[in-house]
From TrEMBL:
SUPFAM superfamilies: Composite domain of metallo-dependent hydrolases, Metallo-dependent hydrolases. NCBIfam families: PRK09061.1. Signal peptide: none annotated. It holds the Pfam family Amidohydro_3. Residues 43-237, 245-472 form the Amidohydrolase domain. This is D-glutamate deacylase. It comes from the Bacteria.
Amino acid sequence: MGGLVITGGRVVDPASGMDAVGDVAVMDGRIAAVGTSLGGAERTIDATGLVVAPGFIDLHAHGQSIPADRMQAFDGVTTTLDLEAGVLPVAAWYRRQAAKGRVLNYGASTNWAFARIGAMTGSNSESSLEAFGNAMRDRRWIDNVASDTEVGGILDRLAGGLNEGGIGIGILNAYAPGAGVQELTAVCQLAATHDVPTFTHVAFMSRVDPESAAEAYIRLIGYAGATGAHMHICHFNSSSKTDIERCVKLVAKAQSQGLPITVEAYPYGTGSTVLAAAFFSDPEFVARNGTGYDSVQRVADGRRFRDREELLAAQAAEPSTLVLWHILDIENNAHHRDLLDMSVLYPGGAIASDAMPWTLSDGRTYTGDAWPLPKDATSHPRSAGCFTRFIREWVRERRAVSLLEGIRKCALIPAQILEHSTPAMRAKGRLAAGTDADIVVFDYETLTDRAEFSAMNRAAEGVRHLVVSGHPLITDGVLDVTARPGRPVRRPVAEG
Ligand SMILES: [Zn+2]
């Protein structure tokens, strides 16, 4: 006997189109069968009245730690990847994750920003949020066009990361707006040669030219067309902001002509990043973004900046400070809600959180083992409620899409975006015999995010059971704090 069987739930599997009551049997970390009357097992989960679906796959999560995993587990996530930023060096990062153990399946791309920092400033520190903030004190890699020698150094570091199994190349272009098109064309050619995707935070996000979001998308479309590289657009919502209508037209037209471009979005009108980000120092910040300095809020104490002087002073004092950027006022502005819908409901687009690490009130990143998290831990609500919020509001309450389509955006589409270059993803995002046993079981009627900007440290509710790589991590709504079932997701490592 052995194994596990989940009985009597509403099985919703976008890959097969199944949406019916049935059983799911699990053996040795994989789904053994999906059907009815699948008989007994060593362990049975009664899912009567609940939804049984493939675990959600987050393409865009910067937490990458045990506390961040646990919060995302209650958001229905079973696989959490950092593809936008990525890591460098790649092999060392995977070794470290395996050594400490992870609660969710995990993985990362190769980090272009740190390749640039290394090649242009000589500082080859391992990638992390703190190291990123500190690196912003030396603006050469942010503002300068790279020399041919430096481009060579960047490409070598990226190729090394890909050969170590990195899931493509993460391009934080907006954090180094000085990078030239010749360099990025070479980076995309490298991606095309390795047949891997790139994951881009586009270069510019302004609603007005020059250096507008539209200009940045035209560049990205150009990279796809001129190099054949698969260009994945990160957080289509926050990169496009109030100019999303124009950006949607550009991207949709490019896709309709067969260009390899994919899209993701998160269901919030507020972004989050580090204070030293180049776009905050832009003297035309207000005119170009249509948001005042009070739209930028420090996470640790909730302070909203009064003016440019105050922001620049805080930037100089502590560059890696985490801040919120209130871009679309979806609570009070119906038009802004419609704009957010354009990215969140983009056809064929994935839901991805852009989850941030959990920070303590003294600004340090929390990586400890306490559950629940320490009271003063904060991040962004999307780090706790992105997927449950999407299903609660866009699927259940507003019926903007069906449950099958909603789960397609949260699980199957993210897997499909990666499966061509990362074979391990062909066994994820679906419920079928032989696929990985990453399964979320939730109460559709009560599923909800609970994290808010005034109270972020709140786990979502409604996920009754969560199975990660065949291991029940959440049972009857309770987390197994001893469990570390997370497995690495990685491309094959090059020989030699
Ligand atoms: Zn980003």
